[in-house]
Amino acid sequence: MTFRDVLIPQSRADDAHSGARHNGAPKKAGASAHSAAGRPVPPVLVYHKVECRNEFGVTRLSPRRFAGQIEALAVGGWRTLTLNELAAVLAGTRAAGPREVAITFDDAYRGLRDYAFPALADAGFTAACAVITEYAGRLNRWDVAIGGRRFAHLAWRDIARWHGRGIEFISHTATHPRLSWLEADQAALELTRSRTMLEMVLGAPVQAIAYPYGAAGPRERELARAAGYRLGFAVLSRWRGDVLAVPRTPVYPWSTSPPVAGPWGVLERSAAQIVTRGSFVGAMWRHAHSASPRT
Ligand SMILES: [Zn+2]
To answer: Going from the N-terminus, what domains does the chain have, and what CATH number goes with each?
Structure first.
């Protein structure tokens, strides 16, 4: 079993979808005109915190562990895809290399500036980093702090500094809500506000959105498309040929090095499924908490 087999079990799936489409059947709601459900999808990894400080969570990797994973990828002959390259592969205008991977980070924590980005730069790797624009330079008060620990997000000056140095900054909405729980106009506002803010700071177009909690149904994907995004990142979903719902594999502290490779990959994916469900429970708790009257 290879890295690719584990990461993209859907690579040869969904032929029925693409076949039906080519035969003139109505397109599935939200599917892109350029989608190709049967084409292999490059592995897209998603990391969260790379920090020295510990937390009672499962999304933190120590800087040493992260650097080890990047080194293992580099030694293994992997190269990273830019967003343009990934989009071209998904659209079928560029062939997917056998050892190509896209690296993404959600939440844009400050530890990335100190540990992850320099490790990527040393390896000559690129990555996309998803920013919660209202929280740039602030603490992660949008999240539950189990054990009371808060973590700082990248400041705008950090974002501006790493932009153009191999890191592409993308939207993670303005305030990190579960978009599917918002009214359509509020969800649209989250998508456009964050994009506008990022474009203002970077002076460059922002082409991708990473949906908070990976939550993106047909409505959210359509809103993202309408807001001008050409790529949308989900978590652990299946590739169905929609560039606004690109599946990603989360990397956890127990991930193998390189991440999700080898025979443990299947077990790891199962664990990731459980954790993703856990984050859903966390979101429910936050939702309930924010809805209750404050005293
Ligand atoms: Zn997030």
So the answer is: 3-12+34-287 (3.20.20.370)
Rounded distance from Cα 173 to ligand 1 centre (Å): 9
Check if the beta carbon of residue 246 is closer than 8 Å to that of residue 212.
no
List pLDDT tens digits, range 190-230.
999 999 999 999 999 999 999 999 999 999 999 999 999 99
Ligand 1 center to 50 CA (angstroms): 14
CA of 123 relative to ligand 1 center, distance in Å: 25
Q: 169-186, pLDDT tens digit by residue?
A: 999 999 999 999 999 999
* pTM recorded for the entire structure: 0.78
Question: How far away, in angstroms, is 27 Cα from ligand 1 center?
Answer: 30
Overall residue count recorded for the chain in this entry? 295
Q: How far is the CA of 105 from the centre of ligand 1 (A)?
A: 9
CA–centroid distance, residue 143 to ligand 1 (Å): 9
Taking the centre of ligand 1 as the mean of its atom positions, its distance from the CA of residue 191, in whole angstroms, is 14
Q: How far is the CA of 24 from the centre of ligand 1 (A)?
A: 38
